[in-house]
Write a sequence for this structure.
């Protein structure tokens, strides 16, 4: 099949029009025209004499495509070319494309934020809220959905009862370490017995002890998150392993800001968190 004839023979374009040639690079957000797949470039490799690009979507799923014609960049058809030769001292990294929000959604230009709706997203703490805001904030402002930190879930049942969920007043709750048999799973099950919760409250969670772990290690330049000895505060243990200040609450906050600063787009987060946040947003915006 002659893939290289796709672009110039597009009958919707002027006969002499040549599509711009753009070198593929990590962090670029592309759309495959034929399938409609939208994702961020995470890998480019040569196989069987062809260059193959991997595109990861906002839910962490990946598909591979052959370079050439058939791609859109910021809504414009392009011919996707092999990677450009790296300049001395350059380093690859994820980046935010002007036509996309940090979550991978199409950026809506000129759209004002909606007045906050009654529905809410609750997360366990300040760091969770800051991470969700950084990646999904643009989307949530357009939808009029506010993110609020709970500062723990031990009294989740009472908090839900006080909120009084119902039609048009929904709650999406993101819980740390929500795995089978955990304390958090028992708290979540009990919380769903509150009158009005059924159908109006969605409790989901990620498997990590702390939301810090939802940042992909490679984004921080490490192979894996350090192990923290039993009995040691997890955040303190992590900062100690990094060799960063860790003795005060201010140290913890500054350490988190360094980690959060490494996050640019959804591609910098683990799929197990991405899927849960997207599930909550869909629950609150499709009612």
């Amino acid at each position: 099949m002659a893939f290289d004839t796709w672009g110039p023979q597009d009958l919707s374009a002027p006969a002499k029009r040549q599509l711009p040639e753009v070198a593929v690079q990590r962090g670029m957000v592309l759309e495959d025209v034929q399938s409609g797949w939208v994702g961020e470039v995470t890998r480019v490799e040569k196989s069987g004499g062809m260059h193959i690009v991997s595109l990861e979507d906002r839910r962490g799923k990946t598909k591979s495509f052959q370079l050439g014609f058939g791609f859109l960049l910021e809504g414009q058809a392009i011919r996707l070319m092999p990677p450009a030769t790296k300049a001395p001292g350059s380093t690859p990294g994820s980046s935010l494309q002007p036509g996309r929000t940090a979550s991978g959604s199409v950026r809506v230009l000129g759209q004002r934020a909606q007045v906050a709706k009654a529905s809410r997203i609750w997360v366990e703490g300040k760091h969770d809220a800051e991470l969700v805001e950084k990646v999904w904030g643009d989307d949530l402002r357009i939808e009029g959905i506010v993110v609020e930190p709970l500062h723990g879930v031990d009294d989740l049942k009472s908090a839900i009862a006080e909120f009084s969920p119902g039609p048009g007043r929904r709650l999406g709750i993101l819980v740390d370490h929500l795995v089978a048999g955990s304390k958090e799973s028992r708290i979540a099950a009990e919380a769903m017995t509150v009158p009005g919760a059924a159908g109006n409250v969605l409790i989901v969670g990620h498997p990590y002890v702390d939301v810090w772990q939802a940042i992909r290690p490679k984004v921080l330049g490490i192979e894996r998150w350090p192990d923290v000895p039993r009995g040691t505060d997890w955040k303190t243990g992590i900062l100690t392993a990094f060799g960063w200040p860790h003795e005060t609450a201010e140290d913890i906050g500054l350490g988190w800001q360094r980690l959060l600063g490494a996050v640019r787009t959804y591609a910098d987060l683990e799929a197990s968190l991405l899927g849960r946040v997207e599930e909550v947003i869909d629950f609150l915006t499709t009612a």
